[in-house]
Amino acid sequence: MDLLLLGLIAVVFLAAGAVKGISGMGLPTFSVALLGLFMPAATAATLMLLPSLLTNIAQCIGPHARALARRLWPMWLMLAAATVFSPLPDLGSAGAGARLTLGTVLVAYGLWGLARAALPDPGRFARPLGGVAGALSGLLTAATGVFVMPMVPYLQSLRLEKDVMIQALGLSFLVATLALALRLGPLAVLSGAAVPLTGHAIALGAAFTGLWLGSVLRRRLPLLVFQRALYSVFIALGALMLARAL
User: How many CA atoms lie less than 13 Å away from 103 in the CB half-sphere?
Assistant: First the structure.
């Protein structure tokens, strides 16, 4: 692997880690979308798995894990099951159609959120709706490697505080990352072998550096600015997905 490619990997994961540090999400989509410009999608996805897994573990640390588990376990269960057992084409064979659809939805939702609209509180239907959101998110995760829809809008509808939301995102993305790794299976091993250990180490170090920088900035953001940053990330993710599809 030449120095130019290693440098590109470092820049991609530094930027993706910073986005995740600010908004609590975005590392898989940003890294896969950008890496996909100069390597196969499956290779990009497997290069993303370890940084995504370890940064999610770091994001999971906090005092709210037990309460979130009691509240979100139906969504996590259906997310994992749908990702692993999805009958849809996965990352190794999915065409541009899935990316085009998801990119359009992400941009539309981001614009809708910036307009200050809000999803209704699910109330007593929170758990069954969480299961539906998890299942749909799992199907999209298997096909595109993107974890956010409709899982993140569902979490936003629960009206969680900023720090609780960040931990909820970390735990949910951890479930999705582990399920995707299981789904990819031998494909992950073969594709990951195409990138030497140096590339994986650089990706991991850059991702954690970006995560730290983004988290420092997030602590200084007022709640409204944080929410706007979250929706802006949706628009950017959607634009990247559309660019890849088109």
Answer: 17
